[in-house]
Amino acid sequence: MQTATATPTVRKAPRPRADALRNRERIVIAAREMFTEYGPDVPLDEIARRAGVGNATVYRNFPDRDALVREVVCSVMDRTSEAAELALAETGDAYEALERFVHASADERVSALCPMVSSTFDKNHPDLESARRRCEQLIGRLMDRAKAAGQLRPDVGVGDVMIAVAQLSRPPFGTDCLVGDRFVHRHLQLFLDGLRAPARTALPGTAVTMEDLRQA
């Protein structure tokens, strides 16, 4: 008589505890704030202190600075994508939806990414590539909708918008972030008014893509 063979039990990987997920989120938020205020070289123990966790908790979640920087960059891109999705869900004026998205993007401090994405970490990491593609596609759809409505000049690309957001949301030289904040949305609105169709003048060069910015 043959003995029935027991079916091996498949063990599922344990899900992270809720408190562990909260700690990781607090670290990313603290890092995003401190990178914005002090740059990407801020000490990790200072980030841990602001997040209210121990140094060991930071290193348990992010084995090195590059991993934390990458997570912050992806986080900002994801939040920017979510703002674009909200704008796309609106059924009213297409250009006004684009305007609200641009102002929301500035609030994410996109300008703080510039020194981080020019650092030595792997810019072609799959997580970054995925976040970039999603962000670019959503912004492109938002702009295409405004162009189709005849409200956005046709000679601008996603890169034109995002480089303006990054540059105009960066504090003026010699001022800190909080002082510069009061100028950001005023200057962005001046820029947005210049994007409206019909255009008064022809732009030099061609529409800038996100790929153009990556290769610059």
Strand residue percentage: under 5%
Classify the secondary structure makeup into a structural class: mainly alpha
- How helical, in percent, are the residues? 55-70%
Task: Work out the radius of gyration.
Answer: 21 Å
Low-confidence stretches: none
Instruction: Please report the total strand number as a whole number.
Output: 0
| Oligomeric state of the chains in view | single chain
* Main pleated-sheet profile: none
Mean pLDDT: 83
End-to-end distance? 74 Å
User: Helix and strand succession?
Assistant: HHHHHHHHHH
- Overall 3D shape: elongated
Q: How many helical elements?
A: 10
Can you describe what's shown?
The chain is mainly alpha-helical and 216 residues long. The chain has ten helices and no strands. The chain has helices at 18-38, 44-51, 55-61, 65-88, 94-107, 113-117, 126-148, 158-168, 177-195, 210-215. Helix 4 packs parallel to helix 7.
SSE blueprint:
Blueprint: H1 18-38, H2 44-51, H3 55-61, H4 65-88, H5 94-107, H6 113-117, H7 126-148, H8 158-168, H9 177-195, H10 210-215
